Every structure is written in structure tokens, then in C-alpha cells.
Amino acid sequence: MADRKSAGDETVVIKKYANRRLYNTASSAYVTLDDLARMVREGVDFVVYDARTNEDLTRQILTQIIFEEESRGEALLPVQFLRQLIGFYGGQMQGVLPGYLEMSLDNFSRQQEQIRSQFTKAFGATPGAGLLDEMARRNMALFTEAMKMWPGFAGTAGRPSEPPKPASTTAGDPLDEMRREMDEMRARLDKLSKP
Questions:
Q1: Rounded Cα distance, 188 and 3, in Å
Q2: Which residues contact 142 (CB under 8 A, 6 or more apart)?
Q3: For residue 165, what is the DSSP state?
């Protein structure tokens, strides 16, 4: 339902009628607050005007969208933030705060994009896509390298896993027992790391 900006990147005009209905003049269709929220998420720029008086209602409609989102239980704004925000109305900082908030959100958005880009470069995927598999492979590689550093395990770390050997009934060397347990643990880890 949300329409992209035209080739000229024109702002979509939404008319609000007395019956509270919102009319998208670009698509010649009525829209809802959910449609407008979707347009915001998609980066479509729009303004809302009162159909009778031509008063700009964009700020009120955007505030109403935030209210609707918050009332659905999808709380984004902490209570303390809301209290502080209300406290700024009518104060000396009221003129400065909007610019500061806008700059802060722009910086936050840029940082999120940088993190997403770095994540993609580092792991070849967006967060969550095969990340656990990649982490498991890297952890196994690190574990194998660490095992090569321990004397007595260097010769077995790179070999394919062998089935665990049964424990001997005679009390043996504690070092042999530790090696046997490490071999069993390595075999289990090898099984877990294979898809």
C-alpha cells in the first residue's frame, strides 16, 4: 500500500478529512496509521495536511503513530525518557532539544549501519544468518590449535577422532587417564561440530 517516491523524489501528500480518514493523494487511496508507519520504515517522505484548513498535521500524525506503537506493548521509549522529555516543554532547552535529538538519532543510525556493514564483512552474512555455525567452526579451530600446544596431545590433535578407549581396570598413570579423557572429549566435540 505504501508508495515509493516518484522519480523526482517528491513528498507524498496525505489529506486528513473530518471523519479522521487519511487519503494518499499519490496512490488515490485511503490509508491507515499502520500504512503511514510502513511508509516511514520504507523511507517514503510524506506530509499530512488537514483537507479543509490545509494546516500541516504531520507532527501530530507521527506522534499518533508513536502512541499507537507504544500502546501495542512494543515500548521503545523508556518511562524516564518520557518524563524528562515532558519536563523540557516550556523550558529554556525546548528550542535546543529537537536539534540535539535529531543529531543523536542520525548518529545512532549511522553507527548501526557501520556495525551491520562490519558484521557482513567479518562473517559474510547479516547477524543471525549462519552465525552460530561459523562461531562453532571457529571455536573448534581454536580448540584444536590449543590442543597442539599441550605436550602429549600434539600428535593427536590433527588426527580424525577415534572411538573412546575403554577405561583400564588397573590403576594407571594419572597422565594417561587425563589423555584418555581429553581424547574422549575431542571425539565428542568433533561429533558436535560436524553438520
A1: 54
A2: none
A3: P
